[in-house]
Amino acid sequence: MSSIRTTALLCASLALAAPAWAEDAAPFVTQLRLPARDTALDTFAWRRGDDVLVSRADLARLSIQAPGAEERVSLASVPGLTYALDDAAAAIVLTCSARCFDVQRLAPRAEHTASPLQNARGAYMNYDAEAQWLDGRGVVASGVAEGAMFGPWGLVESSWLGASTGEARGLARLETRWTVDRPEQHLRMRIGDSSAIAASGAPVRFGGVQIGRHFGLQPSLITHPTATLSGEAQSASTVELYVDGALRAREHVAAGPFAFENAPLVTGAGEAELVVTDVAGRQQVITRPFFVSMALLRPGLSDWSVSAGAERLAFGRENADYGESFVSGRYRLGLTNTVTAEAGIDVGDASTTFQAGATAAHIMFGQVRLAHAETADGGATEAAWLYQTSRWSLGLQSETRDPSFSMLGLRDNRLLRSTAMQASVNLEHYGSASFVAAAVDEVEASEARTYALSYSPDLTFGTLTARLLYTEREERELSFGLHFALALDSDISHSFAYEIDDYGATYRASSQRSPAFGGGDGWRARSVFGRQQRLEFSGSRRGRIGDTVVQVARTQEDVGARLQHSGSIGAIEGYRFAARPIRGAFALVDVGSPNVGIARDRLNIGATGRDGRVIATGLRPYDVNAISLSADDLPFDHATAATEIRVAPGEGAGVVVRFTESTQTLTEAHARMANGAFAMRGDILIRLRDGARFPIGANGRVVLLGLERGDVFELASNRRCSTAGGENVTSPDLVISCAA
To answer: Signal peptide span per the entry (predicted)?
Structure first.
């Protein structure tokens, strides 16, 4: 009967569609079979002489690429496709090579969808206060305060520095600005104090307006070119991606071509290996060399910024000391997968600077960058080369400037020439070694040279580094140092160092335990003796309202102590709080029950307070942050609709994460084994239909959420033990039977 109904439906569809099709082809009902993918599709086709035509939409359902744009496609016109008519089975059997299949796009970098921003409004102030006492000099107090207001309109910030004595005595304004971000367009606008990249490549502090592209507003966006890793599977297979011998991704593919998009490759040169394994265990290995450069932009992708304002002077000392006015622009464009071009211009009161450059990268020659800046008084040229692999790296850099060259942010230029070379090698079981050499030549100064050689053996019980340093300017100095670090347990580390130079030897030893991320106590003991003398001890505590450090120290000349506390106070959506310093972004987590453990990306950050709330700091702006709670900490009469919520807050802003109470019913039962004994306390019942987990308490007590007729549960400790699915969902006992 089902085949009759299918034929009737197809004929009806054909009758309705007939006026839109050409009348020179005879229709017939058939089944398109694709054995390579174990797929069959009931449809209709057309005969035109010896030719067979099918719908373009049907081919798309089978992931077969059809040429042209006609609604009907001749099977003979599809590249790589052959077919055979099976009149007895009323079917068309298709055989497809790699050319006729659509390419399967594999994306090993999973992207999670965050909950929409809750448009929270609020304000807070980060503070870092410190009091320092020195014997014979009294007490010196200092601190930094950063105020912020956030909402749908953006982020307003202002930071201040204060001290009781010294050159910075009193209050000094650091930065004040308003930031508006548009993540969808990767655009950021700032009004107030900011920094711009001058044509020289150096940052310049200024006050004014800045607008430009900011890729950090979408952290998952890959801006650099990535290697294309593709292959072909003859049948359903598993594809494993190895990068320099390490497994990075595993995906399942159907028969046909496939390609990895945004493959997780390492920076520099390397070798990727695709291992394709079919259901019969047959393997094919595809090897591809690659070179990844983060300095490049994808073809057609651009990065730009425009700034206008006045250069900031005496930062940290004066509140509003501004100098030269300017307008600046910078633009970068990815031309190809191997070349990115850049250009910049600075127009100021004193001069105009033009800059142009390009970066190229290829596995044959590595990464090369050339740039030149020119003003009316002179020019500056920069060149750099880098080749990096998992085994070794080598880099060279050179910069030359004319004596009269000056530009925005660099009016007092003293540099004439600088060169540097860096080399490193991974000796595997024998450790690693590196060498750095640099030379600087300045106006009216002798040339300075530095050479550094370091070696670290491959140790299983700690890390050891030996370093030899030679410097030369007015005087020559040679020094040698050893540094050894050791962690005896999970949270206490020790380090020892030895240094010797022309002035004598110095010995250092320290032990420390850092506070846990979620809160706790820590300490550090440090001693220095030899040419220098110092004893130091500090204790720290990370609490709900901030971090506190108490330190005492003694040197050959002085005895002193320091007390420091950093934290934040503020309000979000009417809720006032005191918390740890806010860096990046934060969330107000509302569970509704006290003492419930909260984690960010599975990292414990603390527990809810008496009001059932906690401030979660350290969230990554614009990235997906998973806020989860410990379901075991919830009271038996309180169940939440979810145990994890994903959010993506804006930079410097806060969001509200509410774990709403579930509307499902709670059922209290007792789990018993078939012999009548209670199930073991601490075991877990797993519901088969949704994987929900329910812990077993004393006397087999278990609270079940959303129990339905026919639910079957298994014991986590023994998956062969399960309950029978019954109709009575109010039974006080769940009887667990174990298969032999």
So the answer is: 1-22
